[in-house]
Every structure is written in structure tokens, then in C-alpha cells.
Amino acid sequence: FDANPGAGPPYPSDVLYLYLGLPALFAIGWALGRRTWRPYAQPVAAAAVCLVMATNPGRLVYRLVMQVPLLEQSLQSYNFYEGVAAMAALVTALGVDDFLAGARTASQKARGRWLALVVTAALAGWAMRQLWIWGHGGRFRSGTGSLVETAVALVLFSAGMWVLRAAAGTGRAWLAAALLIMALADYKGFGANRRFNTVDGDVDNLQNPVGIRGINLTAYEALWTNRQFRIASDERGGPNSTDYRLWGLATPQGFDPFLPRAYHDFIEQWVPFDSNREFRMAIRNEEMLRELGVRYVITHEGAANAAWLAASPSFRLLGPDDSFYRVYEFLRAKAPYGWVDGGGAARPVGWLPERRTFQVDSERGGRFFLAEELLAGWSASVDGHAQAVERWNRVFQAVAVGPGTHTVVFEYRADGLLPGAAAGIVAAAVLAWAAARKPKGYCKPR
Known about the structure:
With about 450 residues, the chain is of the alpha+beta class. The chain has helices at about 20-35, 40-55, 60-65, 70-75, 80-100, 105-135, 145-165, 170-190, 215-225, 240-245, 260-265, 285-290, 305-310, 415-435; strands spanning about 230-235, 295-300, 315, 325-330, 335-340, 345-350, 355-360, 365-370, 380, 385, 390, 395-400, 405-410. It is built from 14 helices and 13 strands. The longest helix has 30 residues, at about 105-135. The protein is elongated and about 85 Å long.
């Protein structure tokens, strides 16, 4: 599959959980070259167990998880790829530490003085290149080109590590910074995993410089301009629900493992859930689309409702029919906000995931609703003054607003955010202190 960011068709969700970046590839290569297995036995064994759990042989993991209600609601077998990534981090730490502990020869020390500057510049240049590509749509090479690109990056990173071992003083500090920046750029550019693209042919020149791969620019601009509306995928014919949040867009088909019972029951008045967290939109049910604020439906040729969408007078195709995905606009869409009685005007002036701001106007006033789940943490204000949030339409929220023109703000803030951040800072400080102390009995790979 082609796993570039925003690729179409969508890549499997399990690849989101595995990251093997340049430091890990370097450390694994060093460990294999050293042929010293004992120091790596523990992380390799744990990673092997995680891989068995992730691949779910004979659906054994699924059957066990289903026996525990809390796990059934929150865990999928591919979550164990996170354990593989954690063990890769341990292998990386061991391998890099073993490499840097190696003795420096006189020739290495001499070369280190002038090579440090050259390699530092090369690493910084590559990092800037990766960040530039990522900032312009993430159009990394595919097919054989992706292997070549990764090989070049790994050679540069390995050269930096080799020179770092011989360098000293200011040059060593700058080179270490360049290696860290390159590793961070690699992680930022490729997201949660080092993606190798195996799609046939070189498709890079066929992709749009901005937007979402597989969606034409006209459709993408409409989706982004009207991102306060929701998007629905045509059964298995559209992107995964998790992809929309990566693009800054929204769908009512969110992949939330802790869906409230009220929302679950609300959806099941139209369709049943396929699992504890997934359901398929009834694309032909206009009531469902309107209640959930859906304005766009994404499908592709041969999908369940592709032919019906093309023939329906309630939908129109956005842009030319020259991309993998086809985006249809629902012409009778209802905005996911407004006056409950419909007797006023409303205009969104700020739209962030945690803060929705509206300029509203009404002669009589009334209740103004936002079709967003009323969960703990949501609050509202009118003209800067706090206002009680009411439950509306079983799962959504509304606020009372008087006559005239007002600014209404719905804002989400988790109560545990600041305590959690404080705990994280303390934990990081303790970890840094522990890392600075070399425990007794510490042994390095030999």
C-alpha cells in the first residue's frame, strides 16, 4: 500500500502504531554487526510477544479481549504495535550507547575535526529538505525511490554517528544537535512510522502539491472552507474515520473507544453499530445526515453507494471525476449549529477543535445549539459572560441567548489537563535525573 500522509486508498490503521526511525535502523544494524545478542534479548523477546498479539493469530487475542468489558471497549489487537515501538526504543538506546562507547583511534580524531563541520551541514540540509516536503503536502517518494531515499538518510545519519564518536568540543555539540534535529525531522515528516511506499510505479508527479491525496483540489478546498460541516464515508468506500482528524476535518463516525451510551443509542435509531465504536452511515437517510450536520460524502468507483450518489438529485459531484475519491455535496445539508426554533442568523467566526465562536442575531432570542456531544469539560459564554450549557436533542448542547446581536462561545477544557501536565513535567525531571546517574553494576554490550 502507498502510506504517504493523506494517501488514497487509505492505509491500514495498524501502521499508525509502529515507528522505526533512523536511530532505530542504525542501532539495529549496529547490533546485528556486533553479533552480541544477550543485551538485546529482553526487548527482542518482548517485541516478539507484542507482534504475536498484534497479528492476532486465529483471532485468539480478540476472543480473549472480548471476555473483559473494559478491554473490549478500549483495546484492539494492533495496539500491541505500540509495545514493539517501545522495545525498538530500548534496542536503540542500547545500540547507540554501545556504539558511542567505542574507542577512538588517532586517525579518527584527526578526521573528526574537519568532518564534523561537513557532516553537520549535510544533516541539517537533509532535515530542512524533509521538513519542506512535509510542509508542502508530504509527497515523499514511492516504490523503489522510497527505499533509496531511506538508504541515503540512513547513510547520512550513520556518518554523523561515526564522526560524533571521534569529534570533541564545540564541533561535537553542534553535530549532536544536528543528529537530533534530523531524527526529529524524520519523525515529523513521516508521522508515527517510517513509511515505505510499495505502490506500483512512481506516482509522485501525479499528486497535488497541497490537499489530500486521492481527492481533487476543488473538492478539498470545499471541504476545508466548510470544515464546520461533517463528512461521511460511504461504507468501505471512503477514508477511515481516524484520517479526518489528521486533516483537520470532522466526521460523526469517529473512532472513539469510549463512546457515551447516549450517543450510541442516538445513532442506533438509524443504524446498528458494527463494533463497539464503529458504524456505517446510512447515506440514503437524509434525516440522519441532517441531524449529524453532514454536508459531504466521500466514495470511490464501485463502492456501495457510488452509483446512487451519482444519480441522486440531492447530491452533486465536486470537481472533475479524475481522482481516486469522489466527493459529493449533500444539497439539503443542515449546519451543525443554529437557533433551535430557526428564528435567527448565525455565523461561525472561529472554529478550533476546542473552541467554537459564533456571531448570532435574533429578534426574540432563544436557544442556540451546537451539534457537539455534551461531555464533561464543555462550557459556554455569551458576550464574555458564562452561561449554563443545556442538553439538546438527547446528546448535543445548547445555550440560552437573548434578543439582539451577541458573540457565543463554546469551549472545551479538560479539568485534568494542568495536573496531568504537572505530573508529566515532574516525571520527565525524575527521568532526566535518573539518566544522569550511572547505576552500580551497569554493563555494556560486549
